[in-house]
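Exercise 7 asks you to align residues with tokens for two separate proteins.
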Amino acid sequence: MRCTEARPLFSSYLDRAVSGTEMHEISGHLEQCADCQQEYILLENTSALVSSIGRRQPPSDLALQIRVAISRTRSRNSLSLFQRYIVRLQNAFQGFMVPATAGVLSAIIFFGSLMVLLVPAQVSADADVPSTFYTPPRLEVSEYPENLLNLDSPVVIETYVDSRGYVENYRIISGRDDEEVREQLNRALFRTFFAPAQSFGHPVPGKVIMSFSNINVKG
């Protein structure tokens, strides 16, 4: 077996993924060719080094971070699409109306559409809005019992819930704020699902205040 035939098979030979005949031929070639033997030893050392590194464990809140990133991307894409529709709408009106009238009507339609599409997404749970038009998110499922939390003081958070009922993000309003507390909150919120906020009968993002007050006394 020549060098050009043996070297492409080094990786398969290392994994014992070659036939018995090929293994015998490659072994014989390595005993006779110093250059190929040196290259194979380098490949063998590299494989051993990679295996010793092991697999890195993902962070416990990876799923929550991914959902937040996806939600932000969707928000940017929705805004870009909305801007394109506004430009088309303005061009359509300018084609069959006198310039002065088209300018006034375009401005009215533009700001009217902007208020209808953007204002509901900014409504929070504590806003003074009639309940027939807006209802805040409601807790439906929480698979993480509060008695599993190990908090030395009550924690109150403002939770941001998307239009599907998933927790996008949160901020601690009062109570201890450190890595240990946030790790426990991440586990609890990852298994929590809300009925999304409703605005004029449609699901929209919203906010809700949550309190975690379980205290485990040690000692």
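Second protein for Exercise 7:
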Amino acid sequence: MTHRFFVDEDVADDVVLGGEQAHQIANVLRLKPGEQVTLVRNGVESEVILESIGAAQVRGRCVGKRSADAEPRVRLTLALPILRGDRTEEVIEAVTQLGVSRIVPFVSARSVVRSLADAKRERWTRVAREAAETARRGRIPAIDEAHEWDQLFDALEAPTLIAWESEVLVNLRSSRW
């Protein structure tokens, strides 16, 4: 099983990786020239043979491309209240591995945290990226800006299903879903 990395640009015949990915390949995984990695972008997996490895830069050659087949057929969006501490990160990791395609954070009436800093959203995106690599997904779920409750439903695409623990009259089997 090859190691997977999401990349921001299309994969050309000659591949150059830097930054955290080069560090991961060289120092953490300790991969060697001749070994293979998979680079993923927008649902396309590219198989790359590593040619030279350094802590600052890794070079390789693309030997094949294919569509990623690990994405669910149904695009599912999760509206997620902003939770205290690292709990939101734990939820993002789990739902990414389960196949959610979009996460919409919101501030609920009982939310202790009332805003979402850019640094926190970037951290959540890194968590989603790592979880998507682990789950061998073809895409990283999008993480929206935080919404207030009264604006949340404008940000969600139809059809929308609301799961509420106190619902007693309607269940999934009897609904139109």
